[in-house]
Every structure is written in structure tokens, then in C-alpha cells.
Specification:
By secondary structure, the protein is of the alpha/beta class. Pfam families: GerE, Response_reg.
């Protein structure tokens, strides 16, 4: 698969050094650049075109949310996958990061193995959320009414695809969706791909946000 390249963006040099040591202990991961602020993160990511940017939230000049939007937000051509890492698990950061285009969100106190796995998952084009993140998303939509309703997009989905989207929004993995709907894993993967394609979504994170924005699922439906 080749070497997985990473740009680390964090305003604390010691934190960047720690992340670099953890990641470069893996034989197939290379940190190609480090940034101390959001503006530098965007510039270095555009220069090196890494497989993933490890992005802090609170940084000078440009925060991690704005930097994420510049690299992976709506309308960005050839987006760079961003994994948000922060000590702050407040709703505003979670929701802001995901709306800005982040493909993953983890807290900085995760075990080293979880960090490495998260980098691999997001770099491979999948999405990753810390266990509590989906619940925070739901609380966010409890406080704010759904916006930007797109009934014409929802209408393109078959009943089965809509079921799959709702289960994705509840946080189920492909294997769990297969069990719930009595389908094969390959069939579920195909349905997920079609849902993302029809709705113009990049990954499961965007699918979760879309489902709650459109009111397809509600906080009470989460288990």
C-alpha cells in the first residue's frame, strides 16, 4: 500500500513531537510536515498533499475548524482527509469540525493504538468518531431545528437505502447493519456506497450529519 503520509497541526511543539514519535514508530507511516497554526497547516497540506492531516482545534491565526473547512469543506476539490484531535470535547467543537468537513474526531487522551488506528481509518477514506461523538451530534440537533432540508435528495433513495442511512445515523457499523436487516456484508457495503453517491456525501460522518439535518432520525431513535 506504500507509505502513509501525515501532516501534524498543533500549536504545542511538545504535542507535535509526541504525535510524531507515536506515528513514526510504525514502519509505514511518515510525518512529512508539522504546523504550529491553522494557516501553516493549510499551506503545508496543499504543498505536501498528505494522506491525512492530524488537526488541533485551538490554534493561532486560523483555528482548526477553519483550517479543516479550507482543506475538506463543501466545494473543496481534491479534499485532504482531516482527523481532528483535541482536549476539548465540547459540542461546539464536535459539530463545527464535522460540518467543516472533518472525517474523524478523537480526543487527545486516546491510547496510542487508537490514534494509529484512527489515522489509518481516515487515510483509507473511511470515517471515525469517538464513541460519544454521535450522542453529542444528537444533542446538538435537539437544540437546533433541522436546516437545509433537501427532500429531492431523500427521494432518490430506495426504501432499503433509507433504512441503511437511518442505521448509519444511529452509529451502527456495516456488520451491525447486516445483522439488523438480515443482509450480507457485501450487500450492506453496496447500499452504503449508493447512499453516499446519491446524496453526494463523502463518508459516514457526512451521512450522520445529513440524516439529522433532514430529520430522518431523531434523538429518541438512538439506542
Amino acid at each position: 500500500m506504500g507509505t502513509l503520509t501525515v501532516v501534524i497541526a498543533d500549536d504545542q511543539p511538545l504535542m507535535r513531537t509526541g504525535f510524531r514519535l507515536i506515528l513514526e514508530a510504525e514502519p509505514d507511516i511518515e510525518v512529512v510536515a508539522e504546523a504550529g497554526d491553522g494557516e501553516e497547516a493549510v499551506a503545508l497540506a496543499r504543498q505536501h498533499r498528505p494522506d491525512i492531516v492530524l488537526m488541533d482545534v485551538r490554534m493561532p491565526k486560523m483555528d482548526g475548524i477553519a483550517a479543516t473547512r479550507a482543506l475538506a469543506g463543501p466545494g473543496v476539490v481534491d479534499a485532504v482527509p482531516v482527523l481532528i484531535l483535541t482536549t476539548f470535547d465540547l459540542d461546539e467543537y464536535v459539530f463545527g469540525a464535522l460540518r467543516a468537513g472533518a472525517s474523524g474526531f478523537l480526543l487527545k487522551d486516546v491510547p496510542c493504538e487508537r490514534l494509529i488506528d484512527g489515522v489509518r481509518i481516515v487515510a483509507a477514506g473511511d470515517a471515525l468518531l469517538a464513541p460519544a461523538v454521535t450522542r453529542r451530534l444528537i444533542r446538538e440537533f435537539t437544540r437546533h431545528s433541522p436546516a437545509n432540508i433537501r427532500p429531492e435528495a431523500i427521494a432518490t433513495l430506495t426504501p432499503r437505502e433509507r433504512e441503511v442511512l437511518e442505521l448509519i445515523a444511529r452509529g451502527l457499523s456495516n456488520a451491525e447493519i447486516a445483522d439488523d436487516l438480515f443482509l450480507g456484508a457485501t450487500t450492506v457495503k453496496t447500499h452504503v456506497g449508493r447512499v453516499l453517491m446519491k446524496l453526494g456525501l463523502r463518508d459516514r460522518v457526512q451521512a450522520v450529519v445529513f440524516a439529522y439535518e433532514q430529520g430522518l432520525v431523531s434523538p429518541g431513535s438512538f439506542s
